[in-house]
Amino acid sequence: xxxxxxxxxxxxxxxxxxxxxxxxxxxxxxxxxxxxxxxxxxxxxxxxxxxxxxxxxxxxxxxxxxxxxxxxxxxxxxxxxxxxxxxxxxxxxxx
Length: 95
What we know:
Largest sheet: none
Number of strands: 0
Number of helices: 5
Helix content: over 70%
Strand content: under 5%
Distance between the termini: 42 Å
């Protein structure tokens, strides 16, 4: 399946699942599916995600307690391509 169809296909599948849950009277499961659907639509439209919220919360907490080493400990070199390239070229130091 083409990547351009992934978002609409997900929406359709979740709507079908929510409808099926409504048909069998599983209201709690239907609401859960609709919440997940709402989050997917919100994050797609705004570009915000729970990962950004988590990173901001951790950064604020680390700043409050005086610890600024979170990103050096957790974020792998693959997620920091510029620093990873410097380390591979021998220009950087391993922290």
